[in-house]
Description:
Layout: H1 5-17, H2 20-27, H3 31-45, E1 50-53, E2 56-59, H4 61-84, E3 93-99, H5 101-118, E4 122-128, H6 131-139, E5 145-149, E6 158-166, E7 168-172, E8 195-197, H7 202-213, E9 222-224, H8 230-235, E10 241-244, H9 245-253, E11 258-259, E12 269-276, H10 283-294
Parallel strand pairs: 3-4, 3-5, 8-9
Antiparallel strand pairs: 1-2, 5-12, 6-12, 7-10, 7-11
Helix pairs in contact: 1-2, 1-3, 1-4, 2-3
Amino acid sequence: MNINYEYYRAFYYVGKYRNITKAAQALGSSQPNVTRAMKLLENALGCQLLLRSNKGIALTEKGELLYERVSAAFYQIQAAEEELSLDGKLIEGTIILGTTETALHLMLFRRLKEFKQENPKVRFKIYNYSTKDAIHELTRGAIDISVVTSPFHVNRNIKSKKLFDFRDVLICGSAYADLACTRRHLRELAGYPWVCLGKNTVTYDMTSDFFLRNGVVLKPDIEVATADLMVPMIQNNLGIGYVPEQLAQPELNAKNVFRVPVYEEMETRAVCALYDAKRGRRRCEKEFLEYLTTVDE
Length: 297
């Protein structure tokens, strides 16, 4: 199809704002011109993209599909224009980063701080996702780099760099401190209240599989949305649970929580940086990935 680029440009802003007037303002055009462009694009594609009502503009199912692709393409164009405008002497640009809460707290906060100190003109847009959602957003081109925790599955275009190994340990609060005295099998702890991440996370799936392999069904009493809530929940005796050892260590050292020894240990996991190999990477992205994989712990 040989469709005018300006039609897609107009559609991008209509999809972004879900409003013809705001799209026209962003384009420096008029409302009739934007409306006309949308009709011409729909005619050229042979399908309806917009649903118009008194409440405003909504996208049809095909409109949502097109917007997902067009928005990713526009981001890449804008990023290329931004990089071409640089003088080549300093590392500049904007990196859109998708990451999990666990990866942020285990290592990414510190490395972002150090990288920014060395490269002050690099800007970041950071979005917090589950591992599954971070990979999805990377695959559709909405973000540049995903920093997530294993396990995960990706297509062959997505490349992974391991950054950091960690292990989940079982901890409890003071009300269950007697559990720290004797090593037990996991099945002996099935009747205790459990705290874990929510069912839409890779961590929940991994923990549930680990329980099943050891003859136990995971039935959490409390599910939390983010990893940083796990230790406070357990410290306040709302249950026992598995937490990355590095996140629990400060409270273990302060004896606010206690490690529960069990015969069965979870497998070592990793924080990994993912990127789409089929897309060109800008200098700032390459430098950041290189920094993540070479900086000393």
